[in-house]
Amino acid sequence: MSDFKLPSATQWGIPSWTKRALLVHGMGCSSLTWERVAEALAREGYFVVAPNLVGHGFRKGTDFRMATVAQDLHPYLAHADYDVIIAHSWGSAVVATLLSSLPRSRPTSLVLVDPSLEFSPEFVKAIKEEWANRVANIKSVEEFMAQFPKWTRLDAITRVVGLQACASPDVIREILTQNDPWAFGHLLSDCPPNITITVLIANPEVEKHIPKHSQITCSIIPGVTHWVQYEAPERIVDAALQSVGEGQKA
Prior knowledge:
Layout: E1 9-12, E2 19-24, H1 35-43, E3 46-51, H2 66-71, H3 74-78, E4 84-88, H4 90-98, E5 108-113, E6 118-119, H5 121-136, H6 141-147, H7 153-164, H8 169-178, E7 182-183, E8 195-201, E9 216-220, H9 228-231, H10 233-249
Parallel strand pairs: 2-3, 2-4, 4-5, 5-8, 8-9
Antiparallel strand pairs: 1-3, 6-7
């Protein structure tokens, strides 16, 4: 993997390791949001790659249509096979859009963490400025730790860095505007036969947006907010390892 240029990514582990994981962040975040999950996977012998999506991680851009953002991940898939792909929030919609393009040559496990697959027009209208304001007026590490008592200081730091590295509040506005209607749950229905999908849910309302499918398993994690990678990273890692193990047996 080290002999070609990636758009922008953080890596953990050693590139020569044969087990690989691709981690896709959510809106207003960066690759560093996965720090604790990635470290745990690296300890299990995985080489972990977490891209910075367009408009994030100090990357600029103007086209934030889901298909375009998904296409930006193609270089990662073209030069490596992944045992597991983990995505959070908006990143799950990006991966759902990418589903038909994933390699069919080997079993691949997907773990979608509290995915943002369906938003009503009313919801988008209500939250667009609120979410953009998170980038315009970034809370401090201390404020995030007070708001989310389960977060570590490292979690709060990576959240602040993700917001600071977001190109501008307009990135958030344009992501929500350019993807109207925000309807991506149906894409999971076309799950290729070599793919298994585990959906980890913090908000039980999310489950109704997940299609019924023999290759899709949903699990509700009680007592956590949308930020599962901070509040229960071990649940993500356990789900990934279990899914990969079952895929290899199959």
